[in-house]
Fold:
Amino acid sequence: MAPFIDEMAKNHKRALPAVAKFFCIGIIIGLQMYKKGSSSGLSDWLQDAPGEYLDTVFDEWKKGDPRNEDVAEVMSVVNGDRS
Structure:
């Protein structure tokens, strides 16, 4: 996960908050998809890992001081409301 989180942070430093937000959303969706549909034997060993990483990704993204509207948008993805 570290390379993805690092890339997200780099986009904050590059003054590209929209890119950082979409990177965050992509990571979160990927973690959610893994948690729901992984048939890997590894998932049996790491049952809590996707949720823990999701929190880490979200917390790291918020360090970039996003706008309230962006936080609400990412939270809707975290909560599974991707309508």
